Amino acid sequence: MLLKDKTVIVTGGSRGIGAAVAIGCAQHGANVVVSHHSNADEVVAAIQALGRGVVAVKGDVADPATGSLLVQAAVEHFGGVDVLVSNAGICPFHAFLDMPPETLKRTMEVNLHGAYFVTQAVANRMKEQGRGGSIIAMSSISALVGGEFQTHYTPTKAGVHSLMQSCAIALGKYGIRCNSLLPGTILTDINKDDLADLDKKAYFEKRIPLGRLGQPEDLVGPAVFLASDMAQYVTGAALLVDGGMFVNLQ
């Protein structure tokens, strides 16, 4: 119960990593505001079954107003906000030379601008509350390495990581900690089509020292740790959660 009675906002919380983290935070005693773009019924039901408070807010994180709506929901239902997990993101794989401007723009708006706007809204509320807080951005191993069909995606994840570093400085005076998680290859809806290629899937598994692709649940422990008081002196940090893939040069 590392997050007992804390209120956590999770963007992109209806599926994949976001859903796993939202449910995992509830398992550790948190009330959860689930931000989603389509439907969050399954996650809401799972959290309710744990006996924790939950509210779902539909919206587009690329819209600056969404951050304010999420904070408003947290305040109205649970009295405030203690943790933000900025997780919402998209990755429509595409070649570089003929990348449609709309694809680049939308990826930037959701992944980077969305993280910025929601972080800003939550940080302002945390400052008003005067009790600090924890902001966690879901970056990616892609912040550190390139991808042929991710020229629009990798810059956003590097940007999210950089955003947390700068926010750690800007918000430290208010007791607000800002860190990023860098997942490796995690089996989610974003890459399920890409990894349907069994040869490619086998290649990734071979590259990972722990011998398997990641599951969304693998991000729960790291997220809960950074959200909790156990990480009270951790800010501006980045934690790779990739099964050792990044360090494997073989």
Write the layout of secondary structure elements.
Blueprint: E1 7-10, H1 16-27, E2 31-36, H2 41-49, E3 54-58, H3 64-78, E4 83-86, H4 101-129, E5 133-138, H5 154-171, E6 176-183, H6 198-207, H7 220-227, E7 238-241
Parallel strand pairs: 1-2, 1-4, 2-3, 4-5, 5-6, 6-7
Helix pairs in contact: 1-7, 3-4, 4-5
Summarize this structure as a short list of keywords or feature phrases.
250 residues, L-rhamnose 1-dehydrogenase activity, rhamnose metabolism, oxidoreductase, 7 strands, alpha/beta, quinone binding, Rossmann fold, seven-stranded parallel β-sheet
Cα distance spanning the termini: 40 Å
Helix percent reads 40-55%
Name the structural class.
alpha/beta
What is the CA-based Rg, rounded? 17 Å
CATH architecture: 3-Layer(aba) Sandwich
Order of helices and strands: EHEHEHEHEHEHHE
| Range of strand content | 5-15%
Can you list the strand order of the major beta sheet?
3-2-1-4-5-6-7
Give a short account of the largest sheet: 7 strands, parallel
**Shape designation:** globular
Low-confidence stretches: none
CATH superfamily: NAD(P)-binding Rossmann-like Domain
Mean pLDDT comes to 96
CATH fold-level name: Rossmann fold
- Give the number of helices: 7
Name of the CATH first level: Alpha Beta
Protein name: L-rhamnose 1-dehydrogenase (NAD(P)(+))
Pathway: Carbohydrate degradation; L-rhamnose degradation
Organism: Amantichitinum ursilacus
EC number: 1.1.1.378
